[in-house]
Amino acid sequence: MFAAIYKGQIHYKTEEPMTRTLAIISLSLLALATCSLVLSTSSHAQDQTALYLDVTKPIDSRVEDLLSRMTLEEKLALVHADSKFTSAAIPRLGIPRRWLSDGPHGVREDVGPDNWKPAGRTDDFASFMPALVGLAATWNTDLATAYGKVIGEEARQRNKQIMLGPGMNIMRTPLNGRNFEYPGEDPFLTSRMVVNYIRAVQAEDVSSCAKHFAANDQEWERGTINVEVDERALREIYLPPFEAAVKEAGVRTVMSAYNKVRGQWCSENDYLLNKILKGEWGFKGLVMSDWNGTHSTRGAVLGGLDLEMGTEILPYDRFFLAGGFRDGLNKGEFPMEVLNDKARRNLRQILETKAIEGRAPGALNTKEHQATARKVAEESFVLLKNENNALPLDISKIKSIAVVGENGTQLQAYGGGSARIKTFYEITPLEGILRYVGDRATVSYSTGYSDKPNDELAERAVKAARQADVVIYVGGLNHRPYFDAEGTDRRDMKLPYRQDELLQRLVDANPRTIVVFLGGGPVEMGEWVERVPALVQAWYPGMEGGNALAAMLFGDVNPSGKLSCTFPKRLQDSPAHAMLNYPGKDGTVRYEEGLLVGYRWFDTKNVEPLFPFGYGLSYTRFDYTDLRLQPTGNGAVAAEFTVTNVGARDGAEVAQLYVEELKPRLQRPLKELKGFSKVFLKAGEKKTVTIPLDERSFAFYDPDKKRWRAEAGDFTILVGGSSRDLPLHQNFRLAKTFTLK
Ligand code: BGC
User: Fold this and answer.
1) pTM of whole model > 0.85?
2) Best mutation site among 418, 420, 421, 489 for ligand 1, i.e. most ligand atoms within 8 A of its Cβ?
């Protein structure tokens, strides 16, 4: 009967969602109510009182008990895939087939068992959430929690145990084709967002996957490139989000990256996987490979990989962690304990995700999910320029609007690679504007540009611009190859499809041209940027994006996003490019800029960006006053200050705190983000904001002592609304040196 229940669970995967939901409810209830009956009628009578089935027992003992019951073949089945996104069931022990799914922005559509072709199902739609780079631009950690809840609930309803996200690689270069999937250039901001995201996903009995570990910061030669990165940059820039995911969020799975770090594949990187992740950080979950990112049995077995995914070497028994592993064990090349350790890690994930007792049904595309998608989009928009209050637009004073630009109507959900979503719906910018405006004004639409240069398109757009009261231009990047797309990097930082030229002509035709860019990162901007009155960075705003955008443009929503990455004036100003060490030479990319990634470079080297990290305007204004540093014991402090909304509209401000060490023993970036708080203030309202700091806020990684250390000395605490607008500052003396655990 247990097997029957188990089969029932497998079976419902192929049913329609409603039937499936009912099946889950009834099977779960049945499973709970008849647990002892189930077990006594199973073919393995000894299982009746099996400890691993007792959910009241500690997870460690359940794992050990389950492991002790397994054969070699069953353990091996846990450590490699048996289809594109599954690992095998072990029916004898009630372990169901394990389903994994991309990705960070929603639950991806199902693909064929051994290929990437859509499975052609009718029940694999999902909510399409704004891209992670946009989530980061909200600087609202509560929204990261709400976002994670959507992912978790939808994953459960789609019967996925492991969601392959969030991505947390750092934006080292503006050209990385996957920048849109990652929360930007700063490890602190990234950490704060992914920790809440993961906690919320996992609270829904779904495992998250921190990817791609580590230093997978370009798509160019991603499957072969070797990254040479010094210890401090590794520890201070590239690893902190993973460290926080493990230590703070208890992430259950980690995906090793495709690339090599210091000459060793990440999927068999003893230093990264065994020493740092599992050793220093105490990670108890499993490390899976990226798809087809495993290279040898010995390397994977001893290097710390616990689950091999991908499908390029079929049949599955030929996987490195299948047949090859079995042979090695039989020949005594590997101790059995290595397999036990890997099996244990997989079992822990399986039990923690309640795979055996079954989970409650989840939910898809609910009103709450839609509201979260919209809220994240609304708070992600970054108002980069707004001269003479060009925005918000007052619809009562506008008779005609010319919407121009391919991204006005381009659907984004299905693009970009593994982060794609088969969305229930997607409100495009044009649709959002049309819905908002209704019959209050006429709205025309012209594509303006396309991937095939076309003078006629531009001509028509210019004509429409001339005739309209206001132009809303929606352009930027898209998910086609060589833009924001997995597997390719951008070739340069320019606006594609002659958009610079078109924008120049549009602003000639109509100076009231409002520019909205979609895209995963910065673009170089032509002279037009000096001339347009308003500019908005809208990232990829998800299924509610058009509604959110219209609400912001017409003033129902006050923009409150801040850049999660620096916008350089020119590509060669940004560190990897200034140092001429992108995309690498002879298969190796050297991170010679070291710690100076993103604003750390621009500040330390005194290079003027086009728009700095942390920057973003509002329809109101905020004042910062009264910085006080309050000791919190143990030598640390909390910064307290007042933020006042001095404008005429309600709004939200992201108060940011940076720390500068005045005379560091080792080189440090000029300043680093160590705290932030998003404050919602009515017009005229003021609030006291407290940002606690701890030893880590002052610490750097000491490569000699191999520890994080905060050394006694003088620091400046800087507070304000952008990395380059920090009106409050106060010095602080750290009285003693701390060596962190
Ligand atoms: C990507 C991963 C993704 C996996 C499965 C790989 O190509 O790098 O991020 O989770 O495919 O689709």
Assistant:
1) yes
2) 418
